[in-house]
Structure formats: structure tokens, C-alpha cells
Amino acid sequence: MRLARHIRRRTDAVRSFSAPTMPVAKRHDWLSTLEDADVANLNARCSKIIEGADAKPYNRDWMDKCEGKARIVAQPATTEEVSAVLAYCNEKRLAVTTQGGKTGLVGGSVPVHDEVILSTTRLNTIEGLDKDTGVVTCGAGVVLETLDAYLREHDFVAPLDLGAAGTCTIGGNLATNAGGVRFVRYGSLRGACVGLEFVKADGTVVDCARTSLRKDNTGYALPQLLIGSEGTLGVITKCCIACPSLSPFVNVAWLACNSFDEVRKVLTTARSTLGEILSAVEFLDRGALDATLRAHPDIEDPLETDAPFRVLVETAGCDATHDAAKLERFLEAIDVEDGCVAPTTSAMNALWTLREGVSDAMTSRGFVYKYDVSLPPSTLYDLVEKTTERLEHLDVDVAGYGHVGDANLHLNVCDVTGYREEVHALLEPWVYEEVARSRGSISAEHGVGQCKPEYLHLNKSVEAMDLMGSLKKVMDPHLILNPYKVLPASVL
Ligand code: FAD
Ligand code: 2HG
Ligand code: ZN
């Protein structure tokens, strides 16, 4: 029993710049083009403006798939500067893309054309923690791992955790309503966020972050509008997040399963035997495991079996003896091919690296088509099998992994030869239509970004999409905020 924390290296956000980019939406003709006079005006309003070659890395996304052509990056240090930048851009009809850690996986954080990039990374002050309520107040640009480290010093933890924690920002997490590996324990960030300060497109600062109260039912929940809005409704500048207490005793079990049904049984048994100490249930298939093992030659799979699935079950509790007894009961109750419990903190970290390293391993190997879907648990893995069959004649790697505890599958198809129209056409819209046929969601946790607006109708009714368009026009009448993202042009 030990106090554990897996440490991630910083996600390398700048890759080779050599992969081809995806097809993009046509530029809106109502938006202006940035002139030299605008740059001078923005320089007067914002304490840091990045220009020219230095702006290039901010234009290319983490996956090396999407590239914009922004001339400048505004990096405000205060809410007032954010407000001044937006007020100016709104008046001049200059489009703005807000960017946090740029780890988003749907091309939401980079411009599509020549939008001004508004980087939040200097809004990185942690204002404080209310130890009575567990509510932490901080700037939107605080890196998730930094926030979590701060909280741990005070015996609290962030209510979410994900593989990009060393780079992503809490503002980006909120803007995408990120899920991650603790969702099964702490639920959605929507529940944890008790206050937000945000800036509307016209520069108005809306302060709903004045309190660290956990309960406040005074009318419309405005922060909820911003959560998951992916930079299309406003810029989040500050947040108040209710954080759980630290559960210091952590265990990680690594199990080999022969079928996806076996994986599902592990999940139900974990829920019933581990109860409140269950803190993660993740799975990988053979394709994902091979990719991550290849990328981490220093790490060995402790299980020698060829069984096609691995499940990572983590517990985190406050009483080492009680936790050990529960874990024992869980291990006795499951029927799997093989399994082990990590004997040391470094062994735990290695297992987490195998799981969280899959995304990076796939992306480093070639061009990756990524699908992040929710499906009914009983048919969750069928999509991976059908995809493998559909692409059998092509030389591509298919991997299925994800947050099985939340019925969230990540389907990755990697083509080492680069982007191929033929592969793309076989995958889309087919994958999204398959998901819709199974009554799943085409975006479980990554959002819509620039990759999926044209498929939004598969999850939203006409009336719901129209209302989304109306809300957009109320919040951002000149449609300058993150254009070409989330909403299809048809509802604007
Ligand atoms: P960015 O990528 O910079 O931006 C994402 C979106 O939010 C953009 O649309 C942007 O315009 C908007 N935005 C950013 N900041 C603000 C703000 N302050 N105000 C308004 N809009 C804003 N996601 C998960 O949900 N679960 C996972 O388990 C997970 N694992 C990942 C693992 C890896 C290795 C990587 C690379 C990514 C992973 N992601 C995961 C995706 C990504 O990390 C999350 O979506 C994260 O929340 C994005 O945060 P960011 O600061 O990098 O935001
Ligand atoms: C994960 O859970 C992330 O590892 C990334 O959400 C998934 O890259 C992906 O497809
Ligand atoms: Zn994920």
C-alpha cells in the first residue's frame, strides 16, 4: 500500500509538420482580414502578442492533422486584457480561436483559416482553496497537473485526470467538458464546476465565480452553457472547482481477458465489490497494447499471455487494510485468464503509461483517424471488430481502448503511409452512422471541434441544433468566436 501518483512527461505539442492536413471548411466571407493597423491596436490592448514564425507552432494541432494560418497570437495576462482583445476583434469582425494547452483531439484549438489565436496560458494564477468546501479558484490557463499538485499539497485532488494532464489547462478541460480516467469515480466536470468567470464576444466580463458555495440555485446555470462549448460562446477566464479529498492508498490491478464479455464482467464485479474505492477501469485491446509496448521498449507487459484484452483497475481509498480486503474480494470474484497487482509505485506508473501511452503511440506512428464514442456496453467492442473487417484489405493498424467504466471507446486507425482519401472515405461517415444506429454518441468526451460539425445531426434533433444556433447568435452575434467549430454552417 502506498501513496501513488503517476507522473506524465509534458505532451509534446509540436511535431514534424510533415503530415498532410485534413480538408477544411470554406472561409466565412463576413469575417475581416487582419491588417497591420489591427496588430498595432491589439498590441496596445494586450501585454503579449506573438507574431510571424513564432506564431506557427500555435497553428498546428497536437495530432499534426489540422493547421491554421493565424498571423498573431494574443496572450493576455488578465481578464481585462481578454476583454479588451475581444471587444476590439468583435468591433472589427476579426475571428478569434481560444487556445489552452492545445491538446484537444478534434482540431478545436487551432484556427481553420486566419483567426486570431487567443492563448490563455498566462491566466495561470491559483487564487486559493477553501478547505471547508474543497472549492479551488484559479485562472483558466492553469495546467491540470499543476492544479492537481497544488491540491495534493492540501490533501485534495482534481476531480479529473487524463493523459494530457501535464499540458492541458483547466479552462480547456471545462471548454471541452473533458472526461478522462477518473470520470467513473467523480463524474462529469459539469458537476464539479461551481463557478466560472467568462468573457463574451463583445468583451463583457460575466462574473459567476464570486462564490465557493457548493450549492447555488439562483436562476439559470450560466457556467453550464460555457462548459463543453469549445470556445464558441465565450472565453473562460477563471473557475471554481469543487475537489474531492485525497484518497492516499492506491492499488492497480492489471488483468488479461479472453473476450470483451470478460472485460465487461470485470467491470460489473469491480463496481459491486470495490464500491467507493474504485477509481478507474480502463481497457486496451491487442492492437492498442502492441502499439504502446512498441513505443515504450523499457516497459514489459507483466502478463505473458496472448489474451486479446488488458483491463486496468485502480482503487484509491483512505484505509489501507480495508482497501486491501476489498481488492482481495474483487480478485477472488473475477474469472480472468491472468492478472497481477502492481507491487510498487513504479510498477503502477508503468501500467498507467501502457494505458495512457496508446494515444501518443498511435499518433507518433502515422496518420491516425480517431473516433471517441459512447456506446451501449454490450455492443461497445463490435465497432472495433467491424472496422477491422472493413479495412482488412488495407495495410492499417486498428486499436480499441478507453474508459470502459464509462462505456467510452477510443477507436484509432493508424496509417503509417500517411493520409489516404480511400481510408478516410471508408471510415466516414460510416463510423458515425454505425454509432448513431446503435444509439451511441459520436463524441463521448473530446468534443466536436472542426472534425465533426457535419455529423452533429446524428446526435441532435433539428430543434436542438436550431436552439444551439440561436444561443450562439445571442452570445456572439457577429459569429467571431471559434468559427467552423461545433455548429454546422446550416444553423447559423
Ligand atoms: P485546447 O486543446 O487548447 O482547446 C480545446 C477546446 O477548448 C478548443 O475548442 C478551444 O477553443 C477551447 N478552449 C480552450 N480553453 C478555453 C477557454 N479558456 N475558454 C473557452 N474555450 C477554451 N480528453 C478527454 O476528455 N479525456 C481524456 O482521457 C483525454 N486524454 C487525452 C490524452 C492525450 C495524450 C491527449 C493529447 C489528449 C487527451 N484528451 C482527453 C483531449 C484533451 O486533452 C482535452 O480535450 C483537454 O480538455 C483539452 O485541454 P486544452 O487546455 O489542451 O485545450
Ligand atoms: C485517452 O483516453 C484519450 O487516452 C485519447 O482520450 C484517446 O487519442 C485518443 O483517441
Ligand atoms: Zn479518453
Automatic annotation (TrEMBL):
List, alphabetically, the InterPro entries matched: FAD-bd_oxidored_4_C, FAD-bd_PCMH, FAD-bd_PCMH-like_sf, FAD-bd_PCMH_sub1, FAD-bd_PCMH_sub2, FAD-linked_Oxase-like_C, FAD-oxidored/transferase_4, Oxid_FAD_bind_N
Alphabetized PROSITE patterns for the sequence: FAD_PCMH
- SUPFAM superfamilies, per database record: FAD-binding/transporter-associated domain-like, FAD-linked oxidases, C-terminal domain
Ribosomal protein among the record's keywords?
no
> Which GO terms label this protein's molecular function in UniProt?
FAD binding; oxidoreductase activity
Essential cofactor(s): FAD
Task: Report keywords, A-Z.
Answer: FAD, Flavoprotein, Oxidoreductase
One GO cellular component assignment for this chain's record is: mitochondrion
Q: Which residues form the FAD-binding PCMH-type domain?
A: 65-246
Family to which the UniProt record says this protein belongs: Belongs to the FAD-binding oxidoreductase/transferase type 4 family.
* This protein's name: FAD-binding PCMH-type domain-containing protein
Q: Which organism is it from?
A: Pelagomonas calceolata
Which taxonomic lineage is given here?
Answer: Eukaryota, Sar, Stramenopiles, Ochrophyta, Pelagophyceae
